[in-house]
Write a structure and sequence with these properties.
It is a single chain. Helix content is 73%, strand content 0%. The protein is mainly α. It has a domain at 24-65. It is flat and about 45 Å long.
Length: 66
Amino acid sequence: MISKPVPVRPDLDELVRRSIEAFNALPPEEKRRHRHAQRISWVYGNLALSNPDVTCEMVEEAARER
């Protein structure tokens, strides 16, 4: 397998570092809400690719039923 060199992206690397730092500074309950919102967004995005009738509300409801 041929691998390509990783591009140097100091601006992006700094944004990622600051984002991680900001997330780690959140209180536990806010981290929980953020993770939940990210999971819902990920599921919705993947489902909507194969079924455009899926709504974010449907995903939220399914998550509550679990």
